[in-house]
UniProtKB/TrEMBL annotation:
Pfam families: Ribosomal_S6 (PF01250)
Organism: Ziziphus jujuba
Compositionally biased tracts (Acidic residues): 127-140
Name this polypeptide is given: Uncharacterized protein LOC107427160
Cellular component GO terms, alphabetical: cytoplasm; ribosome
Gene: LOC107427160
Region described as Disordered: spans on this chain: 123-146
One GO term of the biological process aspect: translation
Amino acid sequence: MPLYDCMLLLKPHVRKESMIELASRVGKHVYKRNGVLTEIKSFGQVQLGYGIKKLDGRYYQGQLMQMTMMATPNINKELHYLNKEDRLLRWLLVKHRDVKFGLDFLSEEDSRNELSRLPRSSIFNFNEDDDDDDDEYDSDQEGKQT
């Protein structure tokens, strides 16, 4: 099953409970068709580049949500019921194409080169003594107090 991102742009006044209910409804729809919801992200309130006109006014802000899912290829047709959802300003379904995770996206030779670029030492050097910075701060504070 391919991986999809469903972007939902909701009206700015929609309550959090209503957003969760809409996300669960989409998730149940995907699950009934043997799909899996892998991730849900909320980006909160966003400013729009242009106003979106709806029957109840023009909106310059919205609440953005991203749902990542593995679903059957006909999920686009099955989600068209979202067009009738009055809480939504827009929705978009994007298919991930040729997605490979980790070092699978590199060939074997490239992956060896990729790993060789990483430093062999830890990013945390525990041998250094960083207490010198604290001493400078203490001496600056003493100078200001006198």
